[in-house]
TrEMBL record:
It comes from Gordonia rubripertincta. The lineage of its organism: Bacteria, Bacillati, Actinomycetota, Actinomycetes, Mycobacteriales. This is Molybdopterin-dependent oxidoreductase. SUPFAM superfamilies: ADC-like, Formate dehydrogenase/DMSO reductase, domains 1-3. The keyword Oxidoreductase applies. The keyword 4Fe-4S applies.
Amino acid sequence: MSALTGNTVGHRICPLCESTCGLLVELEGRRVVGVSPNEDDLLSGGHSCAKGLGLGRIEGDPDRIRSPLLRTDTGGFREATWDEAFAEINRRLPEFVADAGSCAIYHGNPAAHHLDATFYLGELISAVGTRNIYSPASVDTWPKNLAHMLLYGGGLGLSLPDIDRTDYFLVLGSNPMVSNGSTVTAPGMEQRLRVLRERGGTFVVVDPVRTRTAEVADLHVPIRPGTDALFLLGVLSAIATEGLTRRDRVPEVVDGLDEMLTLTADYGPDVVATACGIDAELIRTVARGFAGAPSAVAHSRIGTCMQEFGTLANWLVEVLTIVTGNLDRPGGAMFSLPPAGGQNTWPVSRPPKLMFDRWRSRVRDLPEAMGELPGVCFAEEILTPGPGRTRALITLAGNPARSLPNSAAIERALGALDFMVSIDCYVNETTRYADVILPPPPLVTRGHHDVTLAHFQIRNVARYTPPLLDLADDERAEWQILLRLAAIAKGTPERTVEEIDDDVAVIATRRAAKLAGCEPDAAAIASGSRRGPLRLLDLRLRSGPYGDRFGLEPTGLTLELLEQKPDGIDYGPLTPRLPEVLRTPDGRVNLVPPMITADLPRLRASMARPVDNLLLINRRQRRGMNSWLHNALPQPDGGQCALMMDPHDAEMRGLVDGDRVAVTSSTNTVHAELRVDAAMRTGVVSMPHGWGHSGPGLRTPRSEAVPGSNYNALVDDSTELEALTSSPIFNGVPVSVTRLSEERS
Ligand SMILES: Nc1nc2c(c(=O)[nH]1)N[C@H]1C(S)=C(S)[C@@H](COP(=O)(O)OP(=O)(O)OC[C@H]3O[C@@H](n4cnc5c(=O)[nH]c(N)nc54)[C@H](O)[C@@H]3O)O[C@H]1N2
Ligand SMILES: Nc1nc2c(c(=O)[nH]1)N[C@H]1C(S)=C(S)[C@@H](COP(=O)(O)OP(=O)(O)OC[C@H]3O[C@@H](n4cnc5c(=O)[nH]c(N)nc54)[C@H](O)[C@@H]3O)O[C@H]1N2
Ligand code: SF4
Ligand SMILES: [Mo]
């Protein structure tokens, strides 16, 4: 803790990634001047990374927007007061709200890491009255959400790998040594993996690339992109034929075991191995190791989601864990019990309705999931004429111009809007098209608890870090911005944020009282003088699984108690939750959901396809966070954005390290520097996403100086989609690579 001396030091849960590390933040006036890991944090235990430790530079970036911006007649922006900005929105937004559905909303990744959007975005969505809601979820997790929804009933209450107790950990399509993990909140993955191996456990990574994570594994399966479902069927088939199923440990609530095992018969290791690009013996080794371990769990992430057979792959990951008797057991796949409650703790109305395909998009008739439309619909809903066309847009903490596929179409669409409001801290590739930009306040003015990510915590720990500073006069909290926009959208601009917040709280109080089994009055009194997100958080914690039920359980959890325990309160390792955790219509787990198995013929047919193209896949970078940290934390080496290629592929094309190359897909060409790297599999090249910081009107000079290449300019949003969820196929994009000129860098 030597880095932090003098000044004000406070606790802060890092909002940048799903690890949610506990940090100590030192303030000098309103400036963050030091950040260090909180060694005493009960979940993260002193873990942090360069991004979290860079929070001071991120918050202090001189290019951040600090006051509202209004578009000028000449196409630039001018600073404005909050009153001016809201007056302009009030003048223009209502027209599009009145034309039902014509104002869309896009909310990005950082919004999931703040209480403001968690609690108040719903108000804005209902005030705008649109079904045209988008977020990165549809390009990130939907195949996993859908598989879990169909198996367990909840898209958010995912099963989690009990990493700290497992004997065999199989990871597919994730590189947690760089990403710090996703749909699993387990800060300090490096340490956890080391401990796993030290206690005799086995760690296996399935990834086309020998990543940093694969480097520390006992076994690396260098699979061909998009073939995880085939690989898993091969593993399951070996388990079935070698009699390795652990029926005795399969929970009673599981149906369809025999049918499932029969299904695998056509996909023996020798049948799938060629398509997967690996040796059949490797598939058998994994099958025997996984099934033979005292406990084992498979965890799949974005590499398995953003691909052609994403839902199948994510379904089979669960099937593997289940048939080997590892569901809901220590060391297997378990469910969290999130302190603020949520989808996997609240009672459901029976029969619960599947949050999928309840409505469809206007242009292409693609199904919604969890209340949102697929991101691949975003551009066409704006660009295709006709009734219901999207004409206005509100973005919150998102950069669709770099995170959605087919960036050229996205930017054409952004340019074709009649009105656009962005809540964001940069003028970037997306917000440069806005008419009004509203900046979020400094991070340290927010209190924080991870309501959503606690669903992914591998240990039940409750933590809260309070605001360290009050808002300055010229700052607005994001929940206040959201409610002001909601008031305008509803046609009641005269209503105050406080009045609307009280209305929200009345409903939340009623709900919390019902959950806690007490009178609404008692809950209202108990939440006291708190307002905004902290009142709603207190209601959720007190009515949650460890809550004080507004006094009925006097030692139970309250926000006040967490305020006194800034390192958190530990409720211990995950505990078995079957069958009460299930939210399926019949309260059981059907191993063979017809919606998913209907996609098997497509998978089968894929095995006959010739393998001739180079396939482009994505990689993440330690100091980046999708598209938005490149200005505040410039990468030391612009070459980080390079196209990586295996030496054999480079030699065949006469390419050498440092060449400038053209990467061409069916939609576009981008230029990149070539890095020849033996970590790549033959036939596979990789680039990071979120780059391409170029074009007019940006206010991010340091990222413009090293603009990099835009991966998503290469990705198709029209024909090639994951069949069930319409997710784009970011991983496995067929490309050709040629030298640009004799130029070498
Ligand atoms: N430093 C950093 N951390 C981040 C982010 C960041 O941008 N930078 N982003 C955050 C976000 S929003 C998310 S969602 C998470 C994602 O976290 P992860 O899911 O861990 O994502 P990646 O690090 O991209 O790892 C995906 C891996 O899948 C592999 N892969 C590609 N195609 C296939 C395939 O077909 N099959 C298999 N088995 N593997 C494949 C890739 O080679 C890559 O190693 O990371 C978060 N953390
Ligand atoms: N090819 C390819 N594309 C991908 C991915 C991939 O692996 N490959 N990954 C996908 C994934 S997993 C994700 S999650 C998406 C990310 O997609 P997005 O969320 O659309 O993109 P980000 O780059 O995370 O942009 C975050 C935005 O939020 C702003 N911001 C940061 N902090 C705050 C805040 O506190 N308040 C507000 N209001 N704004 C803030 C930033 O300035 C930035 O504009 O990208 C997806 N796109
Ligand atoms: S690992 Fe994630 S949560 Fe932890 S410090 Fe880094 S960015 Fe923040
Ligand atoms: Mo993500």
